[in-house]
């Protein structure tokens, strides 16, 4: 029994192979919410390790704790107990300002809804994080143009979101997430608002960016057919992270 438990834990943590490096670690992560006498446990002792340049999917039904976990990994919320360790830094021990700086410079976020600014062009939306960080306008737009080429939207850079298709808007959102050259991108249902053709296209794009830019992606999705295309899959079930059932589609 102990040998089985040890093997299971090792598979969850994805022990380092020679030359690999830990990018992200979660250790006994718990998150609870208290309302009066009612306590709701959303995450229960979540433990796993992610390597640099890895592509990992977390699958699970609505309400299983996937999005809550993503918020903790990105430093957007604090756990009730446990640790999130990003490149040897304990997020819970950083000041609010230090966590914000880490999010702005080392992490990227992609959501189900693109959250693009409607009055700005694709180029301006992508450049916005750099401008907020203090970059000069010319330098920010040069970098934004480069990223738009990488996501195949160089010919749509001067269009506002209203003039773009759903798939194109999500590509702009991906470009915005990548403009700071993050080591890790956290994606919460990035294809949940798209048809199958555009969903396939977005997942192909994530794979290409992983290969050519070395960006790691942790993708929360309920779509098992898309999750299978990533190198590793874990499942959230009732707040527990576990190896998934056989992914049959």
TrEMBL record:
Its EC number is 7.6.2.-. SUPFAM superfamilies: P-loop containing nucleoside triphosphate hydrolases. Keywords: ATP-binding, Cell inner membrane, Cell membrane, Lipoprotein, Membrane, Nucleotide-binding, Translocase, Transport. It is a peripheral membrane protein. It is an enzyme of class 7 (translocase). GO terms for cellular component: plasma membrane. GO terms for molecular function: ATP binding; ATP hydrolysis activity; transmembrane transporter activity. The keyword Cell inner membrane applies. One of its GO terms (biological process) is protein localization to outer membrane. It holds the Pfam family ABC_tran. Residues 24-249 form the ABC transporter domain. InterPro entries: AAA+_ATPase, ABC_transporter-like_ATP-bd, ABC_transporter-like_CS, ABC_transpr_LolD-like, LolD_lipo_ATP-bd, MacB-like_ATP-bd, P-loop_NTPase. It is found in: Cell inner membrane. Its main location: membrane. Part of the ABC transporter complex LolCDE involved in the translocation of mature outer membrane-directed lipoproteins, from the inner membrane to the periplasmic chaperone, LolA. Responsible for the formation of the LolA-lipoprotein complex in an ATP-dependent manner. Belongs to the ABC transporter superfamily. Lipoprotein translocase (TC 3.A.1.125) family. The complex is composed of two ATP-binding proteins (LolD) and two transmembrane proteins (LolC and LolE). This is Lipoprotein-releasing system ATP-binding protein LolD. The lineage of its organism: Bacteria, Pseudomonadati, Pseudomonadota, Gammaproteobacteria, Enterobacterales.
């Amino acid at each position: 029994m102990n040998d089985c438990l040890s093997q299971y834990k090792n598979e969850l943590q994805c022990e380092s192979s020679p030359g690999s490096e830990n990018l992200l670690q979660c250790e006994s992560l718990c998150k609870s919410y208290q309302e009066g006498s009612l306590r709701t446990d959303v995450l229960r002792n979540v433990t796993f390790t992610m390597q640099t340049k890895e592509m990992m999917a977390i699958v699970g039904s609505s309400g299983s704790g996937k999005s809550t976990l993503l918020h903790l990994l990105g430093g957007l919320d604090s756990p009730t107990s446990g640790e999130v360790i990003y490149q040897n830094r304990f997020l819970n021990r950083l000041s609010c300002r230090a966590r914000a700086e880490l999010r702005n410079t080392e992490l990227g976020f992609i959501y189900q809804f693109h959250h693009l600014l409607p009055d700005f062009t694709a180029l301006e939306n992508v450049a916005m994080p750099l401008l907020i960080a203090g970059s000069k306008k010319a330098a920010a737009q040069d970098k934004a143009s480069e990223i738009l080429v990488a996501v195949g939207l160089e010919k749509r850079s001067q269009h506002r979101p209203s003039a773009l298709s759903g798939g194109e808007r999500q590509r702009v959102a991906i470009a915005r997430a990548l403009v700071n050259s993050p080591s890790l991108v956290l994606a919460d249902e990035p294809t949940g608002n798209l048809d199958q053709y555009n969903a396939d296209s977005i997942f192909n794009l994530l794979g290409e960016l992983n290969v050519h830019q070395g960006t790691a992606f942790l993708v929360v999705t309920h779509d098992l057919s898309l999750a299978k295309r990533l190198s590793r899959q874990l499942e959230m079930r009732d707040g527990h992270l576990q190896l998934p059932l056989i992914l049959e589609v």
